[in-house]
Every structure is written in structure tokens, then in C-alpha cells.
Amino acid sequence: MPKRSVHAPTSRRCSRAGSDCVAAWRIRIATSSGPYRRLIVALLLSVQAVSAVPQTVYFRSADGGTTLTGYLFQPSTPGPWPAIVMLHGRGGPYSSNDNENCTFVGAGTASPCNVNTLSKRHAMWGDYWSARGYLALLPDSFGPRGKANGFGRFTHGDPDRADVNETNVRPLDAEGALAYLRGRRDVVAGQIYLQGWSNGGSTALNVMIRQGNQQGNQQGDQPGFRGALVFYPGCGQTALLASTISTTAPIAMFLGADDEEVSPAICQHVADRSRQAGSPIDVTLYPGATHDFDEPSSLRQSAPGNQAAMDDALVSAAGILDRWKK
Questions:
Q1: How far is CA 283 from CA 95, 229, 258, 322, in A?
Q2: For domain 54-303, which CATH number applies: 3.40.640.10, 3.40.50.1820, 3.40.50.300, 3.40.1110.10?
Q3: For the whole model, what pTM was predicted?
Q4: What mean pLDDT, rounded, does the chain reach?
């Protein structure tokens, strides 16, 4: 893994109920080790406890019929801002501690799955992007379709997943999120990015495939997603719309070498073929990292490969978006 020199902001004031401090401490974690790293983790957890609650918003999927629930992480700095759409994985956007009895999530309906029960990973990344000046939007593809409890591991063949699949359902949700963000005055319409994990990572790749198939990489007369950060996606024949991705918008894949759910080798083959076809795709493979390596829970982070992968991915992903903006 390449070594990077990153300096944490040490004098920045803590604002937006602590989210700026959260980002600062996370960068420090990414450049620290040993007892100092463990101390910073403890401080981060205490700061995140006072972070501002994201805003709950509603918008239409591009399927023309589904009203989606989304969670908006807003920067404290004045807009307009660049934005990023975050696509959850097969477990859904909510914590597994709360989603067992969840079904429908939508406007006017009480549910134990809501903005206060988002998973640690989604809350972490949402706060991280907002603290860096990005408006982050996390759409819920499952709750508005009565499947808020998500799906467990190794459920790829579950027929109940068909109407929330990553090939021709969830890409329309991402495109609906793009249209929603483009309609906001506080968003820079030409600087909207995509991030997805696992099933959401496959969805992100399919969005880029769809976008690349449209003339000039445009959606009508509007720009599409400027690029995609894709974490441990499924890249098999049933997961992707094409085995070669044709796109002028850049893609960065982050894969775990010891992924127990999907094959990083297949994704590397897809990336190789796509690069040979002229698509700008980069791959980072983390030795010893498993599926969900950036899940910040103590159980998942007990694997040393996951700690190193999450630390690097936080710094690397931010640097990549900053380069794509130029």
C-alpha cells in the first residue's frame, strides 16, 4: 500500500455541532498508530456524539413512481457546494441493531428506521464529506419499497431482492438523487459525485455504464455524475449491465484482497478491460482487508487489514474528489 503524508488540521475551530472536529480527528487517525491512534479513536467517538443530525428529505426516483427518503449531511460553510450521493449496500442504510422490525420508511409514517438509526459507516462518511465542504445525500432505496430491514450476507439469490436490484432499479434512484441535487440552489450542478458500497457499489458502476451509454456522457442537456468512488462491489455477470465499462467520467475502486462476499479478482478484470477500452478507472487493493473494511465498528476494525484499509481510504477518497474537482 502506498504511503501518504497527510497533516491533520490542528488549529481549525470546531463548528456545526462538532462535525468539523470529527473530520479533523478522522484524518489524525489515518496518520497515527499504536496507543496514540486508540486515544484519538476515543476522542472521535466523544465528538461524534454531538454531531448535527442530518436532514430528512424526500424526492422522486427516476423510475417515475417511487418517492425516496434521503438523509442530507450539510456543510457548515456557505454554499453552493459540490455534492456526493452515497449508495448503501444490501444491508440498507440503517444500523443492524435497529432494523430488524423495519419495513416501510416514508413521509408521515413512524418507523424505528430513521435519521437517528443510520449505520455507523453511513453516518461517518456523511459527516466526513460535510466537514470537507461537500453536501452528502444518502438515499434509502429499500425503506420506501417496504424492505427497510435490508438483506443479510450471502442473500444474492433471494428473490425478494429482485424489485430493489442493482441493475435496473437502484440506478434510477441514484439518477433521481442527481436530479434532486441539481435542482437545489445550494449545489454546484456540475460537481456532483457518486459513492457506493457493495450492492451500492455495483449500482454505482451501473449508473456510470448507463451514463456512458448516453451521448457525450450527458443526461439530456445536464452533466451527469463527475466521478464515482466504488467500495468492494460485486462485478459478476448478474451484478453489472456490461462486463466492460465505457465512461469518460473517472471511477476509483477500493477492494479488499480477503473479501469473503465478492471477488476482487473479477472487479480487477472488469477494470483492466475497461481501461484498455479507454475508460479512466483506478483500483486500490488492500491486503488483508475484508468486505465492509470501512465499517467503523470495533468488531470489523479488529482485523488489522481493515484498520489500515479504512485509514487509507478516508484520506485517499477525499484526495481523489479534490483532484476531480479541478
A1: 28, 10, 15, 17
A2: 3.40.50.1820
A3: 0.86
A4: 86
